Amino acid sequence: MGYNYLILGAGRQGTAAAYDLASFGEANRIVLADQNDTTASKAADRVNELTGKRIAEPAYLDVTNRQSLKSLIEAADSVMSAVPYRYNLEITKAAIACRAHLADLGGNTPIVWEQLKLDKEAKEAGVSVVPDCGMGPGLINTLGAFAIELLDEPEEIFIYDAGLPQNPQPPWNYELSFHINGLTNEMDGKAAFIRDGQVVYIDTLSEPEFIEFPPFGRLEADVTSGGTSTAPWTFLGKIRRYENKVMRYPGHYEWLRAYKTLGLFSEEPVRVNGCKIPPRELYHTLLEPKITPETVRDVSLLRVRGIGKKDGNKSEVVVDIVDYFDEKTGFTSMERLTGWHCSIMMIFQAKGKVQPGCTPVETAVPPADFIDEIRNRGISYSIRWI
Q: b/e map of 166-191 (b: 16 or more CB within 10 Å)?
């Protein structure tokens, strides 16, 4: 017996997730729902063509129409939300009401906390809700939890991740592989870390350090926001340090620090010649076409350093993942690691391997089980002890 899956949002990550569900999820039916009929149809056709199955189908959906949303959810075992995070709380309520599992791509920790407050309702409905999946916060914190488990007495976890062009072009040396507003959100605000056993908040685009990551050479890692999600509170009292930085080719962050200082990340409108314009809107309008090539050929890098004790000795373990644009399917590495992290979670949910309730992504399933699924999909990773 197969499973019925519903994906809300048929863009890049939703399409990649649908492909993974068709390939590995024992899928009976996959519905790709979007407010743009053409987008949904193209996504379904692409999945069917790549897999050689007539398994994916499109659907029109205005996600703010609660009745239409519930009518689609009612026919699904597991649901993925790949729409903007501001809709996720209402989608969570609808999924619980329809007794369907939900995983989402998150992107806003305050909304995640509101979703987790629905734990009792989800348990009573017998379904699981796992917010904030994807490459970051999802996969990076799955790897953080994995490193914690590898150590007998974990003390410190350092997480680094990057989505980079294989062939960087100046001046930005960066290519956009997900929604630009999500990119700016990462560069704005503050990050939540554990330091000295306490949750602390650190300004974004600060504390630069350089990481040697062969064969990509010397990369700059800076503080960004949102990557740790709920993990600092989950691991509080268990380790004394837990933090995350995003890597870029050297020089890239100098541009972003200047843009932030200038106020271009602000969503508060400013008056220009009698018109009110949000600086962020102007910034995105100008920057997005400059960093969006016709075809993105990217590479995604993840590194987790865990420090503590193993077999009674001071030890350090390093877990690396390197994933490239897939020439065969045309999926970027960002789509694979983001969409597939969520689809893997959906498969675990459909099979009853995630306990009912609303659960932080870092504790939803044993991290070693997730690593096994990554291996099954041919994603390159390594574990080394220092």
A: eeeeeebbbbbbbbbbbbbbbbbeeb
Per-residue pLDDT of the chain (386 residues; tens, 9 = 90+): 699 999 999 999 999 999 999 999 999 999 999 999 999 999 999 999 999 999 999 999 999 999 999 999 999 999 999 999 999 999 999 999 999 999 999 989 999 999 999 999 999 999 999 999 999 899 999 999 999 999 999 999 999 999 999 999 888 888 887 778 878 988 998 999 999 999 999 999 999 999 999 999 999 999 999 999 999 999 999 999 999 999 999 989 999 999 999 999 999 999 999 899 999 999 999 999 998 888 889 999 999 999 999 999 999 999 999 999 999 999 999 999 999 999 999 999 999 999 999 999 999 999 999 999 999 999 989 999 99
How far is the C-alpha of 54 from the C-alpha of 181, rounded, in Å?
34
List, in sequence order, every residue forming a beta bridge with 272; answer none if it has no partner.
275
| Cis upstream peptide for 154 (omega within 30°) | no
Instruction: State whether the Cα torsion 71-106-335-141 is positive or negative.
Output: negative
Q: Are 138 and 111 in contact (CB under 8 A)?
A: no
Joined together, the tokens standing for residue 209 give 């350090």
Per-position b or e across 127-141, b if 16+ CB within 10 A of its CB: bbbbbbbbbbbbbbb
Tokens of 57: 């189908």
Q: Indicate the helix (H) or strand (E) that contains 14.
A: helix 12-24
- Structural domains in the chain, CATH included, are 3-133+336-364 (3.40.50.720), 136-333 (3.30.360.10)
CA-CA-CA-CA dihedral for 85, 87, 89, 95, to nearest 10: -110
